[in-house]
Design a protein that fits this description.
Radius of gyration: 21 Å
Number of domains: 3
CATH architecture of the largest domain: Up-down Bundle
Helix content: 40-55%
Order of helices and strands: HHHHHEEEEEEEEHHHHHHH
Organism: Teichococcus coralli
Distance between the termini: 42 Å
Keywords: Flavoprotein, Oxidoreductase
Pfam families: Acyl-CoA_dh_2, Acyl-CoA_dh_M, Acyl-CoA_dh_N
Number of strands: 8
GO molecular function: flavin adenine dinucleotide binding; oxidoreductase activity, acting on the CH-CH group of donors
Protein name: Acyl-CoA dehydrogenase
Amino acid sequence: MMDGLLLRPPSFQTLARDFAATAARHDREASFPRQNFRALHAAGLLGLTVPREHGGGGGGLARSAAVVGAIAEGCPATALVLAMQLIQHHMIGREAGWAGLAARLGEGAARRGELVNALRVEPELGTPARGGLPATRLRRHGEGWVLSGRKIYATGAPGLHWMLVFAATEEDEPRTGLVLVPANARGVRIEESWDQAGLRASGSHDVVFEGVALPPENAPDLRPSAAWGRPDASQAAWNTLLIAALYTGVARAARNWLVEFLNARRPANLGAALATLPRMQEAVGRIEARLLANDRLAADAAAAEDRGEGLSAAQTGLIKTIAAENAIEVVQQAIALCGNHGLARGNPLERHLRDVLCARIHTPQPDAAHLAAGRLALGQS
């Protein structure tokens, strides 16, 4: 039993092993792993954070982080899309104005495996976490709205059934907020632009909206920008701790491959496995220390959030930053210990390196996390 959700076999650890078997191919082809999400749905994981009254698991942050971290060991691109799914269902389930839509989306996830994600980033705006008004606009059309604009880095775009689009109204005093868009609506178009070094299978393409008609109930909470304030600490915890768990999972996969390599590799001049060398043992011990720190920091913070004793947004931002740098260092050290074997395309370490470097891109980025923590400590926030 997992937070009220009874998983059908296979377990998420078994799923991770299955996903690992195809991860290299999806990375090489930059293809979206649709079969992975069918498997996640069959296991009940796409509705993990959907409230129980809507057919989901009502899962908390600690369980969600454990699942995302495990799946990331097999396929981090799949884990990223899953993390976004879990975050969005948790968040809309908390918003009073979204109650009706949350029930509709939750039932779709739990019963039919429908995916949802928020689309916020734009070519000119960048991430709205740093402020600014989106160029994606809503204009009145009768009782409803018409949406036009472009979003970039729309994670999971090929597999989404629903899109939560950050937009501004065309009014004398613009209001902003998320609007719900069916992915198959007339005027929605995906441009396959995603060709990054890491997380190549995440399908984070551009999505273009060309005069998409929406009913009024699909824009339930539009406010002047100043009325939104800063994201609350709970939202920050979900956003940061699932990302920390994801990249720790990537680092753990690198560590696991390294351990197998060091035990199997027997240079002729040594006459024994590399794992017998004290230098290797110490280096692996340093890797273990970083992984332990990540696991405990994220797990303790997630458990505190579930108890209603969550940390501040500045603190969880620091945990994400620490976890990201630890994960990157783990993979880099694994490659250094393996030499040319680590960068060979036939081995997974070079893919783990490309994937783990994406950790620095997620909000909050290191400079923003340190600035927020520093201002708080200095009484300047």
